[in-house]
Amino acid sequence: MSIYNAVKELLEIGKEHNRARTDFLKHILLMASGLLGILVSFRAGKSPDTCTHYAFVGTVSLIALGILSGSIALYDSVSSTKRLFHKYKESLKGTLNFGSDDVTPVGIKPLRVFSFFESICYIAFSLSVVCICVYAVLLDFSL
């Protein structure tokens, strides 16, 4: 296998990884948005006690934080494509200005801010599952 084919295969694997990551985040955000809507709409009256109320508020807040941070993390694919386009355009301009036929490969580093928000998304959703379990137990014991 030539180096050209190896690089081409590596790029395809990278594209597939990004597509799978984006699809996964989209599915999680869709489910979380539905759950948030269900939780808020089916909430009946006041909570029986303060702990139950805090568990419910914590659940809703963590789901909302997860949705917000997941949406920011999803923007990574848009941002990366835009940055790669501009970097490739500049590379082609430089190649044309020097009159060369060799185009230098370009790459971009992923921005750490999107990885940070993706981590926050997973943490918030995990904590919201714990919080909703606590809420269900507290609600069951208070009846």
Give the topology.
Layout: H1 3-41, H2 50-98, H3 112-142
Helix pairs in contact: 1-2, 2-3
Could you explain how this protein is built, in words?
- The chain is an all-alpha fold and 143 residues long.
- The chain has helices at 3-41, 50-98, 112-142.
- The mean pLDDT is 86.
- Helix 1 (3-41) runs antiparallel to helix 2 (50-98) and helix 2 (50-98) runs antiparallel to helix 3.
- The termini are far apart.
First and last CA, distance:
68 Å
Structural class: mainly alpha
Total strands: the figure is 0
What's the number of helices?
Answer: 3
Helix content range: over 70%
**Averaged pLDDT, please?**
86
Give the SSE order as H and E letters: HHH
* Shape estimate: elongated
List low-pLDDT spans.
Answer: none
Query: How does the major sheet shape up?
Result: none
Q: What's the gyration radius in Å?
A: 23 Å
* Percent in strands: under 5%
Short description:
With 143 residues, this protein is mainly alpha-helical. It contains three helices and no strands.
Main attributes of the structure:
3 helices
